[in-house]
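Hey, resending since the last one bounced:
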Amino acid sequence: MRALRATLPLDNITINTVAPAATLTGLIPPELAKPIIAMGLPTSSADFVGLAVAYSAVALETRQVELYGKDPDTATVECKGRWNGRTILTLGDRYTELEQAISDLRPQWFGVDNATLTRMQQKATDFR
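The structure tokens again:
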């Protein structure tokens, strides 16, 4: 998803992901779900996860997740449009969008030099 979020919008396509935590479905063996439920930990229903999928298809954003490649460093990430390049974590009865925080905090967790060098690599290989 991260590799495609900068190029797919050129063809009017968006890409998002849903990352479900423990979700009660027929695919999860009861012995796996049992300790989670016994400890009172959150679980999601398949319907709840499905709503996240639907939301990611129709949601609007006021800013893009991050600049990429040859996007000028002075460009703004402020924009209006369809959600693109985002991830919704479903955990219990809670939705959390992850990509914005990951992007905003990248220099802190990845290191300033690593973030700078990665941006330079993106610029060198951005063929949009």
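The beta strands are 16-20, 23-24, 44-45, 60-63, 78-82, 86-91, 94-97.

Sorry for the duplicate.
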